[in-house]
Amino acid sequence: MNRIIIIGNGFDLSHDLKTSYGDFALHHIKLAYHKLVDKNSSGSKLFSLQRGDSFYDHEEVKDIDTYRSMVKNGSIIVLKPNQTGNNVNNRLFSDSLDFLIDQRWVDFEISFYQSLTEVLDKPNLYIKNGRLNRDGLSYVAERNRQLEEIKVELEKYIVTQVINKTEVVQFDSYMNLFYERLFHHSTDPKYPQQTCFLNFNYTNTLERYTSKVYVQEAKIETKKIDVINIHGTAGDVNNPINFGYGAELDGRFKELRNLHENSILKFVKSYDYHLNSDYQKLLKYLKTDYEVYIFGHSCGQSDGTILHQLLDNPRCKRIKIFPFKSSENFRTITQEISGHFEDWKEMYHKITPFTETDLCPQYSDRHLIKTLFPNVN
Question: What is the tally of structural domains in the chain?
Fold first, then answer.
């Protein structure tokens, strides 16, 4: 049996990397705020702020709570895209600051998808004779423009503020979990013969655990390991980031597709899976018996297409969740996984029980962590 290891954003967060939606949003909040203090500052390309009556030059936006407090007390004013003096016009981002600031990337991606379904909710405004009318085409084009802007800024943020600025600490506990029994070249059929890392992140964090130098140092056969960066890597022109939604199994997606307008499908993730051979490599694994390990992925609906193929598959024999800190997170992920199964009974047969020993290692516990290979640069 083979093993497929799903790697999500929680994996990066466990290494103390600032890759959450809130981290990205806070970065742009600070850029916009610095523009108020220093007019020569470049500001944010996604939204703008204005000085309020109680604005104080020496105040600093340290975190999201500080930002919210400053907005509430009138120190700063968030300019909406249609306000006078605002030359930044990304409503998708500015609206998200009102309700998604503490949420996950999956929530942002779903909110974008739901914004597209608005054309279905207002057919008199956006649809004529079963097709998008001029206003409908304009609405979709504007939404696509805004998401493209966010995609560009996200990639820039990941490269400049995460990859280039952060030294990743390698956890031996992750190595032990990833390569269980491979250390000993076990031929026992209940242990994996091949391990495939299905990486959903845009960072290069996983390389600390999969690059040949580390794997060989651990005396693991490199031919037993595959890495699939299914959504690309920030800064890699040969495998650019794939940002959008994967809601093909949602009932309303068929309604969108039946509008016969390709622009409304521009950011469907699965349409980019065939731009390289990675997806085909994954399909080969799906034709074998395999187990799934989940580290740091919410298993939310924005990756629904690929997760359905992976989890609700007779070849998938076991699903093991490594939650963040608690059984509550385990339960949340289980609820999300249920949405990818047509028959819930199949899910219950596959998911292994929660144990407190199977938690994602965390940077906050780094005093308990030793680097596995201290002599490898």
Answer: 2
